[in-house]
Write a structure and sequence with these properties.
By secondary structure, the chain is of the alpha+beta class. The chain has helices at about 1-15, 35-55, 65-90, 145-155, 160-175, and strands at about 20-25, 30, 90-95, 100-105, 105-110, 115-120, 125-130, 135-140. Helix 2 (about 35-55) runs antiparallel to helix 3 (about 65-90). Keywords: Membrane, Transmembrane, Transmembrane helix.
């Protein structure tokens, strides 16, 4: 039972990037995080909110301990709530000539011919960073259709060895738990 649960979680978290991406009416690739990515911080927010309201019992803690616990829970609620909103609304649109990312109140675009460097960073399940002379754009890897985006980068002649290594690592991990990955 545990093994089956582990395999299904691995497939849903890592196998997502190998699935076909969604497209809008203009045929542009839409990369959006799945619900599981932003539901975990939302669950943390709700858990901290419950603890925040339960620490009012004077038989459990002193007034000073209650104040400290409420400050900590407020900080956790702010962080988790912000992460949930930011991850829930972030979207990347890969058109034929440019990539545009939308984060809460920020919109950044970079044309494929302006990209000077493609790199990979680990935080938040991994992001690909496209750097140009004037701007840089981060694209999260844990999005449905990321492999299509990677192929689009390769079609434009961009070298992304670090990204390819990470894709191979994720494919090998999926294959080690019994899932077939086709790229």
């Amino acid at each position: 039972m545990k093994n089956l649960l582990f395999k299904s979680v691995m497939k849903s978290m890592l196998g997502l990037i190998f699935e076909p991406g969604k497209r809008n009416g203009r045929g542009e690739l839409i990369l959006r995080r799945t619900a599981g990515t932003w539901i975990f911080p939302l669950f943390g927010f709700l858990l901290a909110a419950v603890v925040f309201f339960l620490v009012n019992d004077p038989s459990i803690m002193t007034a000073e301990e209650t104040r400290q616990a409420k400050q900590i829970m407020t900080g956790i609620m702010c962080f988790m709530g912000a992460m949930s909103v930011i991850m829930g609304v972030s979207t990347t649109i890969a058109a034929h000539d440019k990539v545009t990312t939308y984060r809460l109140f920020i919109r950044r675009s970079i044309r494929f011919e302006e990209i000077e460097e493609v790199s990979y960073i680990k935080p938040f399940a991994g992001c690909v960073v496209l750097r140009g002379a004037r701007t840089s754009v981060r694209i999260p890897m844990d999005t449905r259709g990321f492999l299509e985006f990677y192929k689009q980068l390769k079609e434009h002649g961009l070298q992304a060895e670090a990204v390819e290594r990470e894709l191979k690592n994720r494919a090998n991990t999926l294959e080690s738990v019994g899932h077939r990955v086709v790229w």
